[in-house]
Amino acid sequence: MQQDMFSQVPANRAPIPFEADAPFLKIVGELPRELNGTLYRNGPNPQFESPGAHWFVGDGMLHAFRLENGRASYRNRWVRTPKWQAEHDAGRALFGGFGRKLPDAPASATDGGVANTNVIFHAGKLLALEEGHLPTEIEPDTLATRGYCNYQGRVAGPFNAHPKIDPVTGEMVFFGYNASGPLTPPCPTARSTLAARRRALRVSRRPMPAWCTTSSSPRTTCCFRSCPSPAAWSVR
Fold this sequence. Notes:
By secondary structure, this protein is mainly β.
């Protein structure tokens, strides 16, 4: 199904075409019974091949490796975004690269989000993230998709994939950016929000189009790298 799109991708990085549960993994040696917890992983794993699409934009697939009382288990699930569900129902790809809708896709298919870049746990929520959409909340045990998390309507629009968590307060600092259309004003908008307090700090209209995927968050300042110049906002 994905042979043409991934003909140059080594087999160990090719898409996994199934979901599975392995409750009792074989262990070589012995796991400490005191070592308990779950390691989550997220990455692009397209459900269907799409002409001209880069493998970065494949549908998000979550992997959970769980250690408990000396045992190990594994589970994987696609993140069931609106895009994933629409393509699953249609039995084919409806979007190309970076949210580009295919010409023969139905009018009802409007959301090209893939939730495939990162996964974090914060304030009791497991969130699958990508740059262009809201976080997608995931049930931690089953990996079932709960849907977009907008913090009771306080967050609207994109939410970056690499937020930072303050080790002292536990607050999550993030930003988002967007544009009204390709190569048209207004330019991307950036904002920083402390999610734990749900308090917007600032909204800033950038003077030029830019691609900014991360930031750093010292104790009182948020630093953003926005080519061609950096920006720093005080959060006192």
